[in-house]
Write a structure and sequence with these properties.
The complex is a heterodimer. Chain A is of the alpha+beta class. Chain A contains eight helices and 20 strands. Chain A folds into two domains: 4-229, 3-Layer(aba) Sandwich (Rossmann fold); 239-344, Nucleic acid-binding proteins (OB fold (Dihydrolipoamide Acetyltransferase, E2P), Beta Barrel), CATH 2.40.50.140. Chain A has helices at 43-51, 93-103, 108-121, 137-149, 167-184, 195-201, 219-224, 229-234, and strands spanning 4-13, 17-27, 32-36, 58-63, 66-67, 78-81, 155-159, 187-192, 204-209, 212-217, 239-247, 250-253, 258-260, 269-274, 280-282, 291-301, 306-312, 315-321, 332-336, 343-344. In chain A, the strands form four sheets. A six-stranded mixed sheet of chain A has the order 6-7-8-3-9-10, sandwiched between helices. In chain A, β17 and β18 (315-321) form a beta hairpin. In chain A, 40% of the residues are buried. Helix content of chain B is 76%, strand content 1%. Chain B is an all-alpha fold. Chain B has two domains: 1-40, no CATH class; 43-270, MetI-like fold, CATH 1.10.3720. Chain B is globular and about 70 Å long. In chain B, a hairpin with a 2-residue loop joins β1 (34-35) and β2. Classes of the chains: A alpha+beta, B mainly alpha.
Chain lengths: 345, 276
Amino acid sequence: MSKVTLNDINVSYDGKTQILKGLNLEIGEGELVSLLGPSGCGKTTTLRVIAGFIIPSSGQLFVDTEEMTKVPVHKRNFGLVFQSYALFPHLSVYENVAFGLKLRKMEKAEMDRKIKEILEVCDLTEYALRFPKQLSGGQRQRVALARALVIEPRLLLLDEPLSNLDAKLRLNMRVEIKRLQKKLGITTVFVTHDQEECFSISDKVAVMNGGVIEQFGTPEEIYSRPKTEFVARFIGFENFIQLRKTQENTYRANDGSLFTAKMDCGKSECLGTIRPDDIQIVTNEEAAGNTVTAKIEVRTYLGKSYQYELSTPIGRLVVNDGSGALYKAGDTIKIQLPAAKIVLV
Amino acid sequence: MKKQSTILLIAPITILLVVVLILPLLAVLLPTVFEGGAVTLSRYIAFFQDPYYIKIFVRTLRIALVCTLVCMILGIPTAYFISRVSKKWRGILMSVALFPMLTNSVIRAFAWINILGKNGIVNQILSALHLVDQPLSMLYTEFSVLVGTIYLFLPLMIITLVGVMENIDNDMMEAAESLGASRLLSFVKVILPMSIPGIITGAVLVFTGAMTAYTTPQLLGGPKNMLLSTLIYQRAMTLNDWTGASVVALVMIVTTLIVMKGLNAIAGRLDKRGEN
C-alpha cells in the first residue's frame, strides 16, 4: 500500500497555457480517490503526471517518501487502465496479461499461476485464448484491469475506464472495481466526469476546475456541503440566489425578502444554493418562512418526478416535485426553501 | 438482379484487364514454351544452366532483397516518427519524404551520377579531406545500383507504413510503458507487430519495384552490372531475340510472385489477431 503526495504541481502546455496551477493532493494508503471535473479541468493531466507521461514544469510527486517526479514511466510500476483499454490486438487475453510479467523476467510456472489467478478473479478464465477483438466491451475492460493488476502495481490509475460501456455494465463494473480495489488494498486514482459514478466508488473526491482542486473531501461532504459555486453547480445544485447577510442566520434576497439558513457563510454577501429536489411546493397557507411565490414556466416529465422551471421575484428556480400533484405551465404556486437545505457558498 | 448489376459493374475492368494485360502476356509467354510444334521447357532449362544468366538472376534477386531490407530498416523508424508528429508536421514531412517521387527516374539517376561519379560530390569531399588519393569508383557498381534503387523506393515504404502506423493509438505505447517496457522495447513488442500488415505491403511494393526497375540499373549499373530488366532490353532491342526476352520476363514474373507469396505467408504467421 502506498501513499501519494502531489506537491505544488505546475504543468503548462507550450509554455503558455497553464493546465495545472500549483496543484496539491494527498492520497492516503489504500484509498480510492476520484478526480472529478468537466473536460479540460486538468484531471487527466493530473493522472498523467502521476503515471509519468507528463513531467511537470515544477512541483514534486512522492509515493510514500520516495520522490518519483522524473522517474520514467516503465520504472514506476503503476497499473494503468485507459479509456480505450489499449489492449494489444496482436496478443491473446492470456498474452496481454502476461506482457508485464514477462518483462519482469518471472519464472514461467510462477507467471502462469499469477495469470490464471488474476483471470479467475476478473472472471476471464474461459476467454484466455481469445483475442481482444473477439471480446465484448465489458470483457475488454476486465482484461485491461487484469493486465494492470497482475503486475502488483504500487498504484492503480484509471482514466475514465467506464465511459465506453453501456449503462447497466457500467454499474456492474463500478461495483467490481471497488470490490477488487478493496480486496487488494491498492491505492487508486480514478478519473471521471460522471458525478454519480464518482460518489459511489470513491473514498474521497477531488473536484477539479481550471487546473486546481476546488474541493477535496469525502463524497458525503462534497454532496452535502459544496464549498464553491463551481462545485455546487457541478454536483447538481441548480438554484442560486444572491443573498446579503442581515443578522445571524438571516439573509436578504435581491427583492428584499428574508431567508433563514442553518449555515453561516462567514461574509456579508454570499450565494445561497439549493438542489431542485430539496425545494418543496407548499399547499397550505400556514407554511412559515423561506417561501416564495412562483409562476411555472416549463414542465418536464423526468419519470419519477416532474421538473418545473419557475420564475420568481428572486430569480429563476428549478424544482423537482415527486408528490404526484400536477401543475401546468402558467400556474402560480408557492414554494418553500427549507432552511436546513440551503447551502451558502 | 443484384448478380446482374455486379457483373455489369465489373465488366469494364475485366475487359480492360483481359485486353491489355492477359492477352499480351499470353502472346509473350506462349512462344517461349513451343519449339517445333511441341510444348517444351527447354528454353527455361537453358536459362538456368547458363552461368552468365544465373549470375544476372542472382544479382537481381540480391539487389531487390537488400533494397527491400534497407528500405524496411530506414523506413520503419522514419514512418513511426512521421506518424507521431502533429498533423501539420506530418503533412510537411510526408511531402519531404515523397519529394524524390516528383521527378522523373532518369533525372534522379543523373543526380546520383553527379554525386557518386569520379568527379562527384562524394569524391570531391573525400579528396579535399585527404581521405583518399585516388577517387573511389562508386559509379557503375552494384553499390550505385543499390543506392539508386533504395532512393527510388524508400518513399513507397514510408507512405505505406505511415498509413498503418498513424492508426495505432498512442495508448498502445503508453500501456506497454506502464507495464514496464522501455520505449524501445514497447516499440519492438507492440508497434512493430501491429505494423506487420504495412511492413509486408511496403516490402512487396519495394521488392516488385526493385526487381523490375529499368532506368536506374541501366544508368547507374552500366553494362557490367546487368539485371534481369536490362537483360530483357538487351535481348529484345539489341539482339532482336524476342523469345529470349520473353523467357527472362517470365522468370522475373514467377520470381516476384514467389517472393510475394512468401512475404504474405510470413505476414499471416506473424499477424494473428484472431478470426472474428
